[in-house]
Amino acid sequence: MKKSRVKFEKPHTRENLLGPREISRILEIPGLNRDKPALFAFKVLLYTGLRVSEFIHMRRSWVDLDAGVITVPSRQRCNCMECRYKGKRYWTPKTQASARTIPIVPEVRGLLKTFFQEHEAVLEVYPSRQYVNNALKRLERLSGVKLFPHALRGTFATMLAEKGFTPFEIKDALGWASIDVAVEYIKLSGSTLKRAFAEKWSRGPP
User: Fold this and answer.
1) In this structure, is residue 1 part of a structural domain?
2) Quick one: pLDDT at residue 202?
3) Which one of 113, 126, 158, 202 counts the least CB within 10 Å of its CB?
4) Are 182 and 171 in contact (CB under 8 A)?
5) Cβ(77)–Cβ(157) under 8 Å?
């Protein structure tokens, strides 16, 4: 029986993953610090791996700066436009595995601290995912780098792979139910092969 190939969660994610050069082009946009909504959306999505639905539903209670973690709950009461449209009184993440704890990296610690000193919830600034898309499109126009939320999530997965995280660690950080997609991102990054070359090429002949 022929095995089905593992598919990426969204079309075009694989083709639009960001490398260090693309990330630098965005972060070097003149006046970027004045567009706080765009900067916050870009960096938090890039350095947490949150899905866009998780991002817009994030609340102050999710973020524990002392412990250095973001905790995505299994459900929370919600009255946002998206949940009302779906007739839901509670928001839930995509799968059971999506309820998880994500360590906060230094790149976003200050942003999260400042944001949640001023706001109780991300929905106060981004009432729907379209607001997030619009913020990223502003950066796309100024940088020439294709941007959408799932490409940033995929980029986070490849960054973890390049830093040597295991498939199980990547799966847990991204909230996937199995390691299959994590393995695909590790292959895509070439991290395993690059480490093998770095370790073995300089040894010379046996």
Assistant:
1) no
2) 67
3) 202
4) yes
5) no
